[in-house]
Amino acid sequence: FRQCYSTEDQATYLSQEIEDLFQDKKLVLATWIDLRKAFDKVWKEGLLKKLRNSRIKGRMYRWIKAYLHNRKARVHLDGLKSKKVLLRHGVPQGGVLSPTLFLIFINDLVAELPQGVKVAMYADDLVIWCTNEYATVATKLIQRAVDALTSWANRLSVSINTDKCSTKLFTLSPKQKAGTIKINGELLKDKQPTYLGVTFDDRLTWKQHINKAAAKARRKLAILRKLSGTT
């Protein structure tokens, strides 16, 4: 959301964190959390309460309240129009203020996490991680963080899509094995995560990411060759 900060910056930040900890002979346990339709599901009354707590009041507060409330939408298709539907949740998609309002809505998330857990977020792409010499200790800490995050989400009517959540242990030691991480009793998948378009493997070799990029390039090249009539 911030000027001059791109998805590449965020992915580089996370990868550099892991690389630095590898140098210290430590492991990193990371968990990716998917907030379901985060922009569309913002709890408006909860957002307004946070604005008041941030001492935003008077004309500015009333203007933002009017901006959020009584918004309606309809579908236009082939010259036909649907009935207008009241949008009870969310901040306006494409609105200039929407990114700032969304950040205000989620700005207390970090304070909910236990000490030793870091967080990175780009729009609604959220990842938390911690480091330790032992995977068992890291697993317990991340589980505590996930439980705290789940409680935060429940209070603010934020829905977590557990099917799209995953966890990954980054380590140079084959002896280290992560335990299980659960959200609301559901076991998270242990898989190679793709974060902001970058595939992270457990040793940061980037082999899978390079293979995916090369395969995609070959498919595009094949299409161009067909269009140009060459082989």
UniProtKB/TrEMBL annotation:
<dbReference type="InterPro" id="IPR043502">
    <property type="entry name" value="DNA/RNA_pol_sf"/>
</dbReference>
<protein>
    <recommendedName>
        <fullName>Reverse transcriptase domain-containing protein</fullName>
    </recommendedName>
</protein>
<feature type="domain" description="Reverse transcriptase">
    <location>
        <begin position="1"/>
        <end position="200"/>
    </location>
</feature>
<dbReference type="InterPro" id="IPR000477">
    <property type="entry name" value="RT_dom"/>
</dbReference>
<dbReference type="InterPro" id="IPR043128">
    <property type="entry name" value="Rev_trsase/Diguanyl_cyclase"/>
</dbReference>
<dbReference type="Pfam" id="PF00078">
    <property type="entry name" value="RVT_1"/>
</dbReference>
